[in-house]
Design a protein that fits this description.
13 helices, 2 domains, 74% helix, MetI-like fold, mainly alpha, globular
Length: 271
């Protein structure tokens, strides 16, 4: 065994125990019934009205969350790109800080803020404004998704923007281009790898989440992630839960294909 094989051994063990074996177990349960016989019913169950409704709502909320994150992240990336080192570090720190906190704690904090007698409504009532009644609604779930996943949109976009040669932009201005033309013809095309990576890293977890909808949706916003979670923890139907999970993996494969197509050089990586 050479040095390269020796140092890659821990990674191979991790891949085997942390990825291949769990995926194999999911596939085994998803493609069999409770008696162990092969079946495709668990996968085809996604076509039932209940599951299609949950999947449709999941796709809609994930799409809305991703668009909002992109609308916020791209201008912020442009601001960070042209900011001084001190301001840049502070702004990045503000957006990265929540990532150091537990995911559930961040989401539960929004529950405290948004509930009927929460902090936000208390402040609004004090100044004579109507209460904000979005807790246990899709709007609250979208808000939680945007807050939790926004850093995953900002970082890859910012990473591609800082790699754009400023001399190219200066040359475009010297040739008479205005900011809109520079944005459309230079900045956006060159930042596509970061945009694709950011969209993927926001859309996929937003699509498959169940914790955010459980906490901020109060059980009234039923996403496909909630259906899968309930099959494993409440109904104890691991076969159906695994079958639905296999369907959701299709979206992960598609996202990986998009990243491979638009970010072959790894320009959209978060670091």
């Amino acid at each position: 065994m050479n040095k390269k094989q020796f140092f890659s051994a821990p990674f191979l063990v991790f891949m085997l125990c942390g990825t291949i074996i769990p995926l194999g177990v999911i596939a085994l349960y998803g493609l069999t019934d409770r008696s162990g016989a092969f079946t495709m019913e668990n996968i085809m169950a996604i076509a039932t009205p209940e599951h299609m409704e949950a999947l449709g709502l999941s796709l809609l909320l994930a799409f809305i969350s991703t668009v909002i994150c992109l609308i916020i992240a791209f201008p912020l990336g442009l601001i960070l790109k042209d900011s001084s080192l001190g301001k840049k570090g502070f702004i990045v720190f503000v957006f990265i800080l929540p990532m150091w906190m537990n995911f559930l704690l961040r989401t539960m904090a929004w529950q405290v803020l948004l509930e009927k007698n929460g902090v936000i409504n208390s402040v609004l009532g004090t100044i004579g404004l109507p209460a904000l009644e979005i807790i246990n609604t899709p709007a609250a779930v979208v808000l939680g998704m945007v807050y939790d996943y926004l850093p995953f949109m900002i970082l890859p976009i910012y990473n591609t923007l800082i790699k754009i040669d400023k001399h190219v932009i200066e040359a475009a201005y010297d040739l008479g281009a205005n900011f809109r033309e520079v944005l459309q013809k230079i900045i956006i095309p060159l930042s596509i790898p970061g945009i694709v990576s950011g969209v993927t890293m926001v859309f996929v977890p937003s699509l498959t989440t169940f914790a955010v909808s459980n906490i901020l949706g109060g059980g009234k916003v039923n996403l496909i992630g909630n259906i899968i979670e309930q099959e494993f923890t409440t109904s104890f139907n691991w076969n159906l839960g695994a079958g639905l999970s296999l369907v959701m993996m299709i979206f992960i494969v598609i996202s990986m294909a998009f990243i491979e197509k638009f970010d072959r050089n790894g320009e959209g990586n978060m670091i």
